[in-house]
Design brief:
Blueprint lengths: L1 H11 L5 H53 L9 H13 L3 E6 L4 E4 L12 H7 L4 E5 L4 E11 L14 E12 L1 H51 L13 H51 L5 H31 L8 E5 H17 L4 E6 L4 E5 H17 L6 E8 L3 E8 L24 H4 L5 H11 L3 E7 L3 E9 L6
Parallel strand pairs: 7-9
Antiparallel strand pairs: 1-2, 1-5, 3-4, 4-5, 6-8, 9-10, 10-12, 11-12
Helix pairs in contact: 2-3, 2-5, 5-6, 6-7, 7-11, 8-9, 9-11
């Protein structure tokens, strides 16, 4: 049954509510201690009441036990004084008193039903040996007390074996005392405690409901703020510093929201840049074509000059499209990497050999420094793209008669490629944007230098596909240094 109820509540989703859980925790924290305190108070009262009753009865029994010896009651039970005392004690405590002599014979029973009988019990025998005891029987509602009837040897009665002052046990008083009055008091206390419990349940229930709502309110504010941002009714960051947890959630959401805003802004900038970059060559081609069409009897030399310009613009358009396609491919998952074992020293030599004709036009020296033989598990095409873009940029943004140094090194886990030039450098404010698509540090000379502004974006994506890193250090006017670090084996990716 319990499992069915739990399963039903789970279906309702009630256990997934933090408010419900807080409510139950507060409710239990209020009721469980109250129940424990109530039970403790009642048990303590019961134990204390029984102890007091036992103490009172034992004091009365000791007095009567002395009277029994004084009036020689164990030999003669006709004493009206003793019988009256026994009856009074029996009536006072709603109990029963048995007087037992040393032969275990019952000589007096206040109920009058067991006189003359013999009683054999562990408690009576122990008491005859001088050890009185008491026992509380909660189930049957009585206290049983055994009291030794002792006689002290006087000077007249002393013998060689029993000197004066020796105490002799002559008999036993077996007394049963009712605890009905204690139970009645306990019932009254239980009823009053039950009323208090009901009141406390109502109060704690209300407090738990209020506290659960108050405690959960900051999370509701976060939810409302996120929904408003999602619906476009609210701009900026959310702030709910009520708890550390709400503050952490707010900060995490703000970070995610800012990243998404930046991504959206970057996407818009990218679309705008792509539109601009693609439109510019087309506009130039249209202007050149319109110029030719507007003239009559145009010389062949002018036709050729205009057609060469048109071809250059078309080639530029083609390069932009190819770079965009390469970038789209780079954005796909690393599972598309074509991993092979490649000798990086030979690959670097091949790339430098391709770049040397471009470098000679500006009298730029290309130098490869290999500190060791490096073989790595990489995608050779994408790695060639990384080296080509970095070395080509180092040549384009270098000075006349400058130098480009490519350094190849490795440790037991990674290999590094450093491309360092003696060129114009990158301003500090531009270092964080050089990997943005279509971003150019020197826009005024971008047409002279060439390129699409996508090279470093493609390079960074290719490095990240290899689970590597790329860092840049630059001093404006002195030169730039790129450091690429990539794992040697594909198993580390």
């Amino acid at each position: 049954m319990k499992r069915k109820i739990t399963a039903f509540l789970k279906k309702l989703g009630i256990w997934r509510s933090l408010k419900v859980r807080l409510f139950l925790i507060i409710l239990l924290m209020g009721l469980v201690p109250a129940y424990i305190i109530k039970a403790g108070i009642l048990q303590n009262y019961e134990a204390r009441a029984v102890d007091v009753r036992q103490s009172d009865v034992q004091n009365q029994l000791k007095i009567i036990a002395n009277h029994l010896i004084t009036y020689n009651y164990l030999q003669d039970t006709s004493s009206e004084v003793i019988n009256a005392e026994l009856e009074q004690l029996s009536n006072l405590y709603s109990g029963r008193v048995l007087i037992i002599n040393g032969n275990l014979k019952i000589i007096k029973d206040t109920y009058g039903i067991s006189e003359g009988k013999t009683i054999i019990s562990e408690e009576v025998i122990k008491c005859l040996k001088g050890t009185g005891m008491s026992k509380y029987d909660r189930n049957n509602g009585f206290i049983e007390i055994t009291t030794p009837i002792t006689e002290t040897v006087t000077a007249e009665n002393q013998t060689e074996g029993m000197p004066e002052g020796t105490e002799l046990t002559r008999g036993v008083m077996l007394t049963s005392v009712s605890t009905d009055i204690i139970m009645a008091t306990m019932d009254v206390l239980n009823r009053k405690a039950l009323i208090l419990e009901i009141i406390m349940v109502v109060v704690v229930f209300a407090i738990a409901g209020v506290l659960a709502n108050v405690l959960i309110r900051p999370f509701d504010r976060i939810t409302k703020a996120i929904m408003e941002i999602g619906n476009g009714h609210m701009d900026g960051d959310i702030s709910v510093p009520t708890y550390q947890e709400t503050e952490h959630i707010s900060n995490a959401f703000n970070l995610l929201h800012n990243q998404m805003m930046n991504m959206d802004s970057s996407r818009q900038d990218f679309v705008a840049n792509v539109s601009h970059e693609l439109k510019t060559p087309i506009t130039s081609v249209k202007v050149l074509a319109d110029s030719l069409l507007a003239q009559q009897d145009v010389p062949a030399e002018l036709y050729r000059e205009f057609l060469e310009d048109i071809a250059e613009e078309i080639e530029r358009e083609d390069k932009i499209i190819n770079d965009l396609l390469a970038l789209v491919k780079m954005d796909k998952s690393a599972a598309e990497l074509n991993i092979t074992s490649v000798n990086m020293n030979e690959l670097a030599e091949i790339i430098l050999k391709r770049m040397r004709p471009i470098a000679r036009k500006r009298d730029i020296e290309l130098l490869l420094v290999s500190t060791r033989e490096v073989t790595a598990e990489i995608d050779e095409v994408k790695m060639s793209l990384i080296l080509t873009n970095l070395i080509e940029n180092a040549i384009k943004y270098n000075r006349e008669h400058g130098k480009v140094t490519v350094t190849l090194d490795a440790d037991h886990q990674y290999f590094t490629i450093t491309v360092e030039d003696t060129g114009i450098g990158i301003p500090e404010e531009s270092l964080n944007r050089i990997y943005d698509r279509f971003y150019r540090v020197d826009k005024s000379h971008s047409r002279e230098i060439g390129g699409t502004g996508l090279g470093l974006a493609i390079t960074k994506n290719a490095v990240q596909l290899h689970r590597g890193s790329i860092k840049v250090e630059s001093t404006f006017g002195e030169g730039t240094r790129f450091l690429v670090k990539i794992p040697l084996t594909h198993s580390l990716l």
